[in-house]
Amino acid sequence: MFKNYLLALVCALSLGTLTACTSSGKDDSSALVEDGGDVALGLDSDGALTVGDPNSSDFFNGPAELQSNNTIYFGYNSENIQDQYLGVMQQHADYLKKNPDARVIIEGHTDERGTPEYNIALGERRARSVARYMQNLGVDVNQLSIVSYGEEKPAVEGHSENAWSKNRRAVLNY
User: Fold this and answer.
1) Sign (positive/negative) of CA torsion 159, 74, 109, 155?
2) Model-level pTM greater than 0.85?
3) Which among 12, 129, 136, 150 could bridge 79 via Cys, Cβ 3.0 to 4.6 Å?
């Protein structure tokens, strides 16, 4: 029941970027970041919002140097990418453009403040922001999937600005 309510709320909140909350059965993954089109959207068992197919067998581990520098942090209540993370995204974009078979899942996370519904939507906006920037760098949209965990998977436990700042993030996983 809660998952259905959460899905309906996320769909309502996302109407500005998504036009449908179910897949039509056709492969229209170009709508992942762009407006319009049908998008595969759902909640998994831990309440995470998923757009695209992060469980695709096409995913594999990227190089270790990318895995160790794969986090973009955000300001409070923001999905704006800070200048200090542009180089990180450029490295990932370069790798993805040179390896067209590579796929990346962009995970959006938030701190614990806010309602679960709001945080799922904010995590999605953060992941979309990173995906959109990667597309602007020339990465094929078919190489990108996003998932929002909201506040459900904190990097750091705690109730302080120090902990919260580590949890407001997007993580690129190969």
Assistant:
1) negative
2) no
3) 129
